[in-house]
Amino acid sequence: MFIVRFIALLTVLALSTGCASGLNSMQKSEMRHFEARNMTVKEKSPGAAAALGLLPGGGSFYGREYGFGVVNLLLWPLSILWDPVSGYDAAQVINYEATKAHLMQSQEKDMRVLDDQLSSGEIDMVSYTIQKRKVEAKYRYN
User: Whose CA is closest to 54, among 28, 85, 29?
Assistant: First the structure.
């Protein structure tokens, strides 16, 4: 009876612990766009995350899903059924968020340079406007 309750508790924990759901279709499209323009940041390897998912909780721990990693550790070897996918999805989300943050910082830096050039008189308002449009186009996803 204790084992049944313990397994039920672990199942509830597994279902209630947030796992990475991966990228939605819009985010996948954005990442393809960024990859095509060689603008991505790779903090985590989705392949390594999937491979580590075969170890007890490895994919989740690698993907910074620590609560889910503990549950997967306790449910191993059953967690082999979902932890590779969870780790893979988490690595993709981490890379997406790192890419977006990097691009936002880069755009802000480029705009600060332009603003400084305008305020110092290095460029006039016409040049500023043209350069600003170029910066916005560089970082825009369409």
Answer: 85
